Amino acid sequence: MRHFLLVLNKARTDHNISITDLTGSGRIDIACRFVNSVLFNSYSLRRDVVVHLLFRGPPLEGSLRLEMDSRNIRGIHPGERSIAGYIKKNLKSYDQRKVPANIGVKVVEQSLDDFVKKFEGRRFVLHEEGDGIGSFSFKDSEDVLFVVGDHKGVPQKLLGELVEGSDLTPISLGKNSYQAQQVSSFINIFLDREKD
Q: How many C-alpha atoms does 17 have within 13 Å on its Cβ side?
């Protein structure tokens, strides 16, 4: 399975998301575009990906991770507002009952460091200084994780700790910075072509 984790540095760790102001809700707009590019093909859901959103804003002291597994997920549709509503509904259910609202969704309080260290498989973080993606082969990889930052990136202090403390390898799509949804689209296409 391909796992894509988006670090959302200012996104709220509760369900107080404004569907009419996704940018002002901790850049949930970035999360929605990322989810869309990871989960959806032209006319259907992919069945080989898991998307993780790591919310790092208030009110929690720590982080909240929302996971969507494409093998089991139900009730999600493409489009920013639709995905934002889906995220909000699952966060609200978690806030109120400590369970997500939809099948195929998991919500847990968990730090990036903890998640990366517990992930069983190959682990990469997108960074302009990393080795080019073309220098890696993914054909025989059962589980692979790609950590992507929002418009602020993965915080440098956290990035340094992660690279030193685990087998998290910096990987690059080139010297330019790209939007999170562009990164995930490129990686999905790259891995699709390598698989063919």
A: 31
| 109: confidence class by pLDDT, cuts 50, 70, 90 | very high
**What b/e sequence results for 73-107 when a residue is b if at least 16 CB atoms lie within 10 Å of its CB, and e otherwise?**
beebeeebeebbbbbbbbbbbbeeeeebbeebbbb
Identify the CATH number of the domain in which residue 7 sits. 3.40.1280.10
Contact between residue 19 and residue 28 where contact means Cβ atoms under 8 Å apart: no
Helix (H) / strand (E) containing 37: helix 28-39
Structure tokens of 168? 């998290």
- Count of domains forming the chain: 1
| Residue 19: how many other CB atoms lie within 10 Å | 14
Containing domain of residue 116, as a range?
2-195
Categorize the per-residue pLDDT at 165 as very low, low, confident or very high, splitting at 50, 70 and 90: low
85 has pLDDT over 90 = yes
